[in-house]
Structure formats: C-alpha cells, structure tokens
Amino acid sequence: MTPSLLHSPLVLFVTQAILIIAVARTVGVLARRVGQPMVIAEVTAGILLGPSLLGWLAPTLYSNLFPAQSMPALQIFSQVGLLLFMFLIGLELDPKLLRGRGRTSLLIGKAGIVVPFVLGSLLALYLYPRVSEPTTRQLSFVLFMGTAMSITAFPVLARILSERRLLRSNVGIVAITSAAIADVVAWCLLAFVISVVRGQSHYGPLRTLVLTAVFIAVMVLVVRPFLRRLGEQASSREGLTQNMVAVTFLLLLLSSWATELIGIHALFGAFLFGVLLPKEGSFATSLADKLEDLVVVLLLPIFFAYSGLRTQLGLLWAPQSLMLCVLIVAVACVGKLGGVILAARSTGLSWRESSALGVLMNTRGLMELIVLNLGLDLGVISPMVFTMMVVMALLTTVLTTPLLCWIYPHDPQQRDVLGSLEKDKPDSPQGAFCVLLCVSYTGAAQSLIAVADALTTKSSPAPRLYALQLLRPTERTSYYVDAAQAEKPLCSALTPMLELAQQQGLAIKPISFVSSEPALDICNVAEVKGTDLILLGWHRPLLNQAALGGTVSRVLAEAATAVGVLVDRGLVLGQLRKVLVPFHGTADDDAALALAFRLARQPQVQVTVLQVAAPPSPKPPASNAQAKPPQPIAVPPELLAQVTIKQVVHKDPAEAALAETTVNSAGGYDLVLVGIGSDWGLQQRTFGMSQERFIRRCPASLLIVRGAATAPRNAAHSPPAVSTASV
C-alpha cells in the first residue's frame, strides 16, 4: 500500500486497526503458550509497533503508518474502549464481595494500598528532581506515584484465579475480595488525585469532592433502584431487548459525562455505573456477553497500541535511567509483596498462602496502564517516567504466573480446591464399586450410561457413580461473574445423562467445574472419590493426531486407578448381550478380563474370552525344554455358564481379535474389551502396538482398558486366576 493511499483518514485507521489486531493476536498465541495473560501480548504488540522497535528499525514506514496527525483518532477510539471496559469491570465487581468477608480481606486490602502508597510517595520525593517535568507540582507528582504503586489489576487477577481453579479456594476468595477492596479504595484515591491536579484554586479539590459525593448519592438513591427494575424486566420472559440496551448505554454515557464535568474523569462514571448495575438474574451477564468481544478484540488492543506508541524504551538506555527503572520495579514489588504477606500472616494464614496472596496482589497489568495514561495526559508524569512505569507494570504481571506456580504449586492447590469434594462423599459400604464417568459432549451420554449400567446393576454393595464435566476457561477478560455462572453444578452436557440415568434407576452424582488442566483434574477427582474405574468417551482425533492422544493420553499415563476408553459404535442402552475379550496375558488384559467378568454377572450378558497364543517356532529349541501351552484362565464357578474360553494361535494378536470380530460381525459382538498393552504397547506382541488399526477396523463398540497403576504392568506374567473378589 503506497503512502498516498494512507492519506485518507479512514484507510489509515483501518490499516492501523488491521496491524494492531493481527500483531496482538499473534503475540497472544505465544503468550498463552507460556502461561501469560493476553494483556502482556497486547502491550508488547503496541511496543513492537511503536517507536521502540518499528520506529527504530523502519522510521519511514513507522511515520507513514502512525503519523502524528493520526494520534487523536487512535486516542478517541482507545478512550471509548476504556469507557466500555471500565463499565465491564464494574459489572463484574459484585459489591457483596466487600461485605461479610471478615477481618482478613479488609486487613489485606488495606495493607495492599497503604504500604505501596507510602513507599511510592517516598520514592516520588527522590524521583521528582531527577525525572519530573519542571511544570509539574511536587504534591501532584507524589500523590500520583503513590496511587499508581497501589493499583492491583482486578480483572487479570480474577482471570489467573479462574484458570488455576482457585476462585473458590481459601486463597482465591481472600485474594479476590482483598483486590476488590484495594481497587475500590485506589480508584477513589485516584479520583481525589485528579481533582487535586485539575484544581485551579485551593477550593478546587474541595468543590470536586463535594460534587462527587452528590453524584454518588444520586447514583445510589435514584439510578440504582431504576436499574434494579430494569434488570428484573430483562430477566423475565421478554429478555434483554434493544431498547433496554439503548437505555443502559444512555445512562452509562450520562454517568461518564457527569464525572468528566465534575473533574474526576469519565472512566469513574463508567466504573461506578457498572458496579451499581444489578448482578441478580441474567441482566449483567447478557450485557457482558454483548460487549465483551467488541471491547476486548477491537477497542482494547487500540488502547494498548496507543500506550505502546507512547512508550519510548530508548529513553532508558542511559545507565542512570536504567537504574531508576530497576528502583521503581523493586519498590513496587516490595510494597505490594511485603505489605500483603505481613498482613496475611498476621491473620493466621500460612507463609505459603500469604506469599501466594502477595504475588497475586502484585499483579498490575491493564489497570496500571489506564492510570499511567491518565497521568501522562494530565501532564503529571513525563514520557520517561511513563516508560519506566509501563516496564514495571509489565514485569510485575509477567512474574505473577511463574511465581505463583513456584510458591503455590498444583498439589497444594488441589488439596485446597478438591477438599470440598470429600465433604459430599457419600457413606457407602466397604468395597462398593465406584465409576467416574467423564462427559464432554451430550452424544456420549447414552453409551457411557450403557456401560456403567451393565457394570453396576445388581452389584452388591450398592455402587457409587459420578458424572464429571470439566469446562474450559473462556476468554473473558473480566471473569468473576462468568466463572461463577460456569461453576454451577448442573451443566448442559450433564443434564441429558442425569435424566437418562434416572430413567434406568441409576443414582449418579454430578460434578462440574472450570478446568485448565482437564487430565490432571480427572485424575485428582478420581483419587479424591476413591474410584475403581475412570470411564472416558473417545473422540475421533484431528488429522495427524494419535488415536489415544490429548487428554485421553494423559489420563491413561497418569491415573492411579483403572481407566476405560469407550469407542462407541452404536451401543444401545439395555441391549448389551455379547462381549469379546481378546487376551494375551498382560496386566492390562487382566483388568479387561476382570471388567468382563463383572459384566457377566448380568444374566443377559455372554462373554467370550479369545486367548491368543503365539505359533510354535519353526526352529528346534536349543534345549530339551518344550514350549509351554497357555495356562487356563480361572473362571469363577458361578460364571461358567456365561463365559466361553476360545483359544487361537496367531502371530499377531490384534489381527486374531479383528478376525474374530469380523467373522462374527453378522451375529454381532456388542462390546469388545481389550487391554491397551503394557507400557503403551511398545512391545510388538501386545495389542497396544496396534491401537490405531484396532480402533479403526473393529466393527463393534470398543472399551480400551488400562489397569490400575499399582499392577505390575511392565512385565509379562502368567494368565490370571480371577476370583469373585477381584470383580
């Protein structure tokens, strides 16, 4: 595209938007892979497109793409994006969080404000003669730096807690409430600082504070009741209409307009309006769903790019500037970490929990950038200080996830989060068979219920069945309301399974939560519940993926209990009649055989055990020893009428089993139970090496079984003598 085409303001803006979104999303893919929030990618994208990199490498291209006359348009769009985003932040911040949380959250929230504010103000006194503009008043600079050091990125913190499934843990509850308290105080403090900066006389800040108090009173006493009635109407049958959305946006803009006239910036009006909007019903969630993608995908990246265009890393190349930047980062970390950790310890929390809270509260991210842009626009901080503080915001946010993983690793988290599952563990007789059915889509419900029903009906003592659905974290930026909705106990994929189980007289307890590590959480839930079998539904893999790859692969590798992967070929509930068990003598074959004998306890089920032996070697043995024939499989006496042992000789056990299913496909095996093979089938003589072709060519439904991890799975052993106790 030639520079002449970019002279059109519309073409220039569209070109800038294309570049910003493309670079932000590209960097975002890399950021997500290393466990970093999207805000890091978007700020980095802005810096890459700004004078720090693009302007340095290709100054002519940079001046054509981002000329000075285009900055006002970018600023307007970024401000609109910030207004809507601050509304979303307020929408996600439930005022109930600030009540009834006790002394711990209040003390930590205050410490997360007071200590950083004091240290930041002392640092500002040192920085003022060195890096501040001569026209900036010392009081304004000191108050602003103290406030900027106190900010916590509430949405980024909530996102990290949600992804690590800590929102409902002890640490998560304290962190989210403390951050909410700290952010409300910090934004009120920032409003005061802005009134001081903008005040033209000694009475200016006082006038601003009085008008702000009047505005808040009107919003709480007049606007909030109206919004409550609007929310009740939106949650009724009529739903959220376009007229309701229009009224909401009008009130949002009026609120922002009022706070801008008062002198505390339009962002505060948008934030307060979002806080006051009722969280009951579907009103808040529906509004967030309508706005989220537009704000996060289009408007916020423009704000980040605008911030990046104002960030000049070249100003930090001087040794003195670099040392001052390091000092700012150190003071920011010491203030948040030290203040929060000491406050948390004083409330009785452990060092591990206190340190995790300190790391979480040290997250600054997007909220810090909003504050810094306000400071730069107001002339309180210079471009050099702005760049130093942007570096501080990025580093504190980048360090959050790795430090949290180190201080508060996954095992302590799981004990905290999954501990609640043990409380609802039913009192059941010793030895009750327990199955964990893992559900990811509604189509797998009938086949999983069919197998669970056949494994547990008529068993004594009464079995325990759990249905587990793990929900993927969404890409919501402000996540609290969405996560709370997602963690409701009954979800869409579980509902049809529970209805079907109820029709069959099966009592299944549902478990559902958000998980970013599904395989690990499946194994942990199975351990907490003491399950005997994890039952997974199989999905057709994508191109170039293993048949048993992804989450299934990790569960098979890491679960301590037995695992069954069900490949459904039309298994019908209540019509499981003929079962085939190819057997070659591995530990996983033992587990498959034990499950088959459990199925055989149903009067309608007939089990055929296909015992495959290797053909005799054509070469004479080196000694006088004769090749041992396969040892007989011990069948429980009460199952002799329902279990048939069929012996075949074949050099390839998988081909022998496939031939059996093909020959009998007309009569029909309903289900084939096959061991996955010791050590993932690395030995040629086991079925595991033939997973791909066995799954694709077997005409019947297939249950691939991996025995419990405590079994001697690495060594060949004699065929089992199965007793009634083992099934």
Topology:
Blueprint: H1 9-33, H2 38-49, H3 54-57, H4 59-65, H5 71-92, H6 102-131, H7 138-150, H8 154-163, H9 170-198, H10 204-234, H11 242-262, H12 266-276, H13 283-310, H14 319-346, H15 351-361, H16 365-378, H17 383-407, H18 410-423, E1 434-438, H19 445-456, E2 464-471, H20 480-486, H21 494-503, E3 508-514, H22 518-529, E4 533-537, H23 550-558, E5 562-567, E6 578-583, H24 587-599, E7 606-613, E8 643-649, H25 653-663, E9 671-675, H26 691-697, E10 701-706
Parallel strand pairs: 1-2, 1-4, 2-3, 4-5, 6-7, 6-9, 7-8, 9-10
Antiparallel strand pairs: 5-10
| Quaternary | single chain
Strand-residue proportion: 5-15%
Question: Could you name the ranges where pLDDT drops below 50 across 5 or more consecutive residues?
Answer: 422-428, 478-490, 623-627, 678-689, 711-727
The CATH class of the largest domain is identified as Mainly Alpha
The main β sheet shows up as: 10 strands, mixed
Total number of domains: 3
CATH 2nd-level architecture of the largest domain? Up-down Bundle
- Which strand order does the major sheet show? 3-2-1-4-5-10-9-6-7-8
Name the helicity range: 55-70%
Q: Total helix count?
A: 26
Describe this structure in words.
It is a single chain. Helices cover 57% and strands 9% of the residues. The longest helix has 31 residues, at 204-234. The protein folds into three domains: 75-303 and 316-413, Up-down Bundle (Na+/H+ antiporter like fold); 433-565, Rossmann fold; 576-613 and 633-727, Rossmann fold. Strand 6 (578-583), helix 24 and strand 7 form a beta-alpha-beta unit. A ten-stranded mixed beta sheet has the order 3-2-1-4-5-10-9-6-7-8, with helices on both faces. The protein has helices at 9-33, 38-49, 54-57, 59-65, 71-92, 102-131, 138-150, 154-163, 170-198, 204-234, 242-262, 266-276, 283-310, 319-346, 351-361, 365-378, 383-407, 410-423, 445-456, 480-486, 494-503, 518-529, 550-558, 587-599, 653-663, 691-697; strands spanning 434-438, 464-471, 508-514, 533-537, 562-567, 578-583, 606-613, 643-649, 671-675, 701-706. It contains 26 helices and ten strands.
